[in-house]
Design brief:
The protein has 192 residues and is an alpha/beta fold. It is 58% helix and 12% strand. The structure holds adenosine-5'-diphosphate.
Protein backbone atom coordinates (compact mmCIF):
# COMPACT_ATOMS: atom_id res chain seq x y z
CA UNK A 1 0.00 0.00 0.00
CA UNK A 2 0.95 3.61 -0.51
CA UNK A 3 -0.03 5.58 2.57
CA UNK A 4 0.73 9.27 2.63
CA UNK A 5 0.46 11.75 5.48
CA UNK A 6 -0.08 15.21 4.02
CA UNK A 7 1.00 17.60 6.73
CA UNK A 8 1.07 21.36 7.13
CA UNK A 9 -0.60 24.34 8.79
CA UNK A 10 -4.19 25.39 8.05
CA UNK A 11 -4.32 26.97 4.61
CA UNK A 12 -1.18 25.20 3.37
CA UNK A 13 -3.06 23.61 0.46
CA UNK A 14 -3.54 20.08 1.75
CA UNK A 15 -7.06 19.74 0.38
CA UNK A 16 -6.23 21.16 -3.06
CA UNK A 17 -3.19 18.92 -3.46
CA UNK A 18 -5.02 15.86 -2.11
CA UNK A 19 -7.60 16.13 -4.89
CA UNK A 20 -4.84 16.08 -7.50
CA UNK A 21 -2.92 13.28 -5.80
CA UNK A 22 -6.06 11.12 -5.64
CA UNK A 23 -6.49 11.40 -9.41
CA UNK A 24 -2.88 10.57 -10.20
CA UNK A 25 -2.13 7.85 -7.66
CA UNK A 26 -5.59 6.31 -7.18
CA UNK A 27 -5.63 6.67 -3.42
CA UNK A 28 -8.48 7.19 -0.96
CA UNK A 29 -8.50 10.71 0.50
CA UNK A 30 -9.41 10.98 4.18
CA UNK A 31 -9.68 14.54 5.49
CA UNK A 32 -10.61 14.67 9.17
CA UNK A 33 -11.76 18.29 8.70
CA UNK A 34 -14.13 17.25 5.89
CA UNK A 35 -15.48 14.34 7.93
CA UNK A 36 -16.12 16.62 10.92
CA UNK A 37 -17.86 19.20 8.68
CA UNK A 38 -20.04 16.48 7.15
CA UNK A 39 -21.08 15.38 10.65
CA UNK A 40 -21.76 18.96 11.75
CA UNK A 41 -23.93 19.57 8.69
CA UNK A 42 -25.93 16.44 9.45
CA UNK A 43 -26.06 17.19 13.19
CA UNK A 44 -24.83 13.74 14.20
CA UNK A 45 -23.69 13.10 17.77
CA UNK A 46 -20.08 13.30 16.57
CA UNK A 47 -20.83 16.58 14.79
CA UNK A 48 -22.41 18.13 17.88
CA UNK A 49 -19.43 17.12 19.97
CA UNK A 50 -16.83 18.37 17.48
CA UNK A 51 -18.50 21.69 16.71
CA UNK A 52 -17.64 23.48 19.95
CA UNK A 53 -13.93 22.74 19.44
CA UNK A 54 -13.88 23.58 15.75
CA UNK A 55 -15.74 26.88 16.18
CA UNK A 56 -12.99 28.08 18.51
CA UNK A 57 -10.19 26.76 16.33
CA UNK A 58 -9.13 24.14 18.87
CA UNK A 59 -8.42 20.47 18.24
CA UNK A 60 -11.12 17.88 18.73
CA UNK A 61 -9.93 15.48 21.50
CA UNK A 62 -7.56 12.74 20.32
CA UNK A 63 -9.72 9.83 21.35
CA UNK A 64 -12.73 11.05 19.36
CA UNK A 65 -10.62 11.85 16.29
CA UNK A 66 -8.65 8.60 16.36
CA UNK A 67 -11.78 6.44 16.64
CA UNK A 68 -13.44 8.33 13.82
CA UNK A 69 -10.40 8.00 11.54
CA UNK A 70 -10.08 4.26 12.17
CA UNK A 71 -13.76 3.74 11.36
CA UNK A 72 -13.26 5.63 8.08
CA UNK A 73 -10.26 3.52 7.06
CA UNK A 74 -12.32 0.36 7.68
CA UNK A 75 -14.84 1.55 5.09
CA UNK A 76 -12.29 1.01 2.29
CA UNK A 77 -10.97 -2.55 2.54
CA UNK A 78 -10.00 -2.53 -1.16
CA UNK A 79 -7.98 0.70 -1.03
CA UNK A 80 -4.56 0.77 -2.74
CA UNK A 81 -3.57 3.33 -0.15
CA UNK A 82 -4.68 6.46 1.68
CA UNK A 83 -3.92 10.15 1.82
CA UNK A 84 -4.31 11.28 5.41
CA UNK A 85 -5.10 14.99 5.29
CA UNK A 86 -5.34 16.84 8.61
CA UNK A 87 -4.47 13.69 10.51
CA UNK A 88 -2.37 13.10 12.56
CA UNK A 89 -2.39 16.51 14.24
CA UNK A 90 -0.72 15.43 17.48
CA UNK A 91 2.07 12.96 18.30
CA UNK A 92 -0.52 10.79 20.07
CA UNK A 93 -2.53 10.57 16.88
CA UNK A 94 0.62 9.65 14.94
CA UNK A 95 1.41 6.84 17.37
CA UNK A 96 -2.19 5.57 17.25
CA UNK A 97 -2.15 5.62 13.44
CA UNK A 98 1.08 3.59 13.31
CA UNK A 99 -0.32 0.97 15.69
CA UNK A 100 -3.55 0.76 13.76
CA UNK A 101 -1.81 0.39 10.38
CA UNK A 102 0.63 -2.14 11.78
CA UNK A 103 -2.27 -4.31 12.93
CA UNK A 104 -3.53 -4.19 9.35
CA UNK A 105 -0.11 -5.25 8.03
CA UNK A 106 0.75 -1.90 6.51
CA UNK A 107 2.44 1.40 7.43
CA UNK A 108 2.95 5.05 6.48
CA UNK A 109 5.09 5.27 3.34
CA UNK A 110 5.93 8.96 3.49
CA UNK A 111 5.06 12.17 5.31
CA UNK A 112 4.96 15.29 3.15
CA UNK A 113 4.99 18.61 5.02
CA UNK A 114 3.82 21.66 3.07
CA UNK A 115 5.64 24.76 4.26
CA UNK A 116 3.93 28.15 3.96
CA UNK A 117 4.65 31.30 5.97
CA UNK A 118 2.05 32.77 8.34
CA UNK A 119 1.36 35.90 6.35
CA UNK A 120 0.49 33.85 3.26
CA UNK A 121 -1.65 31.43 5.35
CA UNK A 122 -3.68 34.29 6.77
CA UNK A 123 -4.28 35.69 3.28
CA UNK A 124 -5.36 32.34 1.86
CA UNK A 125 -7.69 31.49 4.75
CA UNK A 126 -9.47 34.84 4.73
CA UNK A 127 -9.97 34.49 0.97
CA UNK A 128 -11.26 30.93 1.41
CA UNK A 129 -13.64 32.21 4.10
CA UNK A 130 -15.13 34.71 1.65
CA UNK A 131 -15.63 32.03 -0.98
CA UNK A 132 -16.64 28.97 1.06
CA UNK A 133 -18.32 30.64 4.02
CA UNK A 134 -16.54 28.20 6.34
CA UNK A 135 -17.15 29.84 9.73
CA UNK A 136 -13.68 28.96 11.03
CA UNK A 137 -12.19 30.82 8.04
CA UNK A 138 -14.10 34.06 8.44
CA UNK A 139 -13.01 35.10 11.93
CA UNK A 140 -9.43 36.38 12.11
CA UNK A 141 -9.13 35.45 15.81
CA UNK A 142 -10.17 31.85 15.11
CA UNK A 143 -7.63 31.64 12.28
CA UNK A 144 -4.89 33.00 14.54
CA UNK A 145 -5.79 30.42 17.17
CA UNK A 146 -5.65 27.59 14.60
CA UNK A 147 -2.17 28.69 13.54
CA UNK A 148 -1.14 28.91 17.21
CA UNK A 149 -2.55 25.43 17.90
CA UNK A 150 -0.67 24.15 14.86
CA UNK A 151 2.61 25.64 16.11
CA UNK A 152 2.12 24.42 19.69
CA UNK A 153 0.48 21.00 19.26
CA UNK A 154 0.79 19.82 15.67
CA UNK A 155 4.21 20.92 14.36
CA UNK A 156 5.94 18.63 16.92
CA UNK A 157 4.33 15.57 15.33
CA UNK A 158 6.67 16.12 12.36
CA UNK A 159 9.57 15.01 14.57
CA UNK A 160 7.92 11.66 15.05
CA UNK A 161 8.13 11.05 11.30
CA UNK A 162 11.58 12.62 11.06
CA UNK A 163 12.84 10.03 13.55
CA UNK A 164 11.52 7.32 11.22
CA UNK A 165 13.19 8.90 8.17
CA UNK A 166 9.79 9.58 6.58
CA UNK A 167 9.65 13.36 6.81
CA UNK A 168 9.91 15.45 3.63
CA UNK A 169 9.52 19.23 3.66
CA UNK A 170 7.88 20.64 0.54
CA UNK A 171 7.84 24.32 -0.41
CA UNK A 172 4.12 25.18 -0.42
CA UNK A 173 4.53 28.51 -2.23
CA UNK A 174 4.07 28.57 -6.00
CA UNK A 175 1.44 27.51 -8.49
CA UNK A 176 -0.80 24.52 -7.75
CA UNK A 177 0.94 22.52 -10.48
CA UNK A 178 4.43 23.42 -9.28
CA UNK A 179 3.62 22.25 -5.77
CA UNK A 180 1.93 19.13 -7.12
CA UNK A 181 5.10 18.28 -9.08
CA UNK A 182 7.22 18.68 -5.95
CA UNK A 183 4.94 16.31 -4.04
CA UNK A 184 4.69 13.79 -6.87
CA UNK A 185 8.41 13.44 -7.37
CA UNK A 186 8.89 12.44 -3.72
CA UNK A 187 5.98 9.99 -3.91
CA UNK A 188 7.24 8.39 -7.12
CA UNK A 189 10.70 8.01 -5.61
CA UNK A 190 9.23 6.45 -2.45
CA UNK A 191 6.93 4.03 -4.26
CA UNK A 192 9.74 2.57 -6.39
P1 LIG B 1 -7.49 23.44 8.33
O1 LIG B 1 -6.38 22.51 7.96
O2 LIG B 1 -7.81 24.42 7.26
O3 LIG B 1 -7.34 24.07 9.68
P2 LIG B 1 -9.34 21.20 8.55
O4 LIG B 1 -10.48 21.20 7.62
O5 LIG B 1 -8.27 20.21 8.36
O6 LIG B 1 -8.84 22.68 8.49
O7 LIG B 1 -9.87 21.06 10.07
C1 LIG B 1 -10.85 21.92 10.59
C2 LIG B 1 -10.94 21.73 12.10
O8 LIG B 1 -11.31 20.38 12.43
C3 LIG B 1 -9.63 21.96 12.89
O9 LIG B 1 -9.42 23.33 13.19
C4 LIG B 1 -9.90 21.10 14.15
O10 LIG B 1 -10.75 21.78 15.05
C5 LIG B 1 -10.67 19.92 13.61
N1 LIG B 1 -9.75 18.80 13.27
C6 LIG B 1 -9.44 18.37 12.01
N2 LIG B 1 -8.57 17.35 12.06
C7 LIG B 1 -8.30 17.13 13.38
C8 LIG B 1 -7.45 16.22 14.08
N3 LIG B 1 -6.68 15.32 13.44
N4 LIG B 1 -7.44 16.28 15.44
C9 LIG B 1 -8.20 17.15 16.10
N5 LIG B 1 -8.99 18.04 15.50
C10 LIG B 1 -9.06 18.04 14.16
Amino acid sequence: MLNIVLFGPPGAGKGTQSNKLVETFGLVHLSTGDIFRYNIKNQTELGKLAQSYIDKGNLVPDEVTINMLQAEVEKYPEAKGFIFDGFPRTTNQAIALDKFLEAKGTSISVMLALEVNEEELMKRLLLRGQESGRPDDTDENVIRNRIKVYNEQTAVAARYYEAQGKYHAINGIGSIDEIFNRLSSVIVEKSR
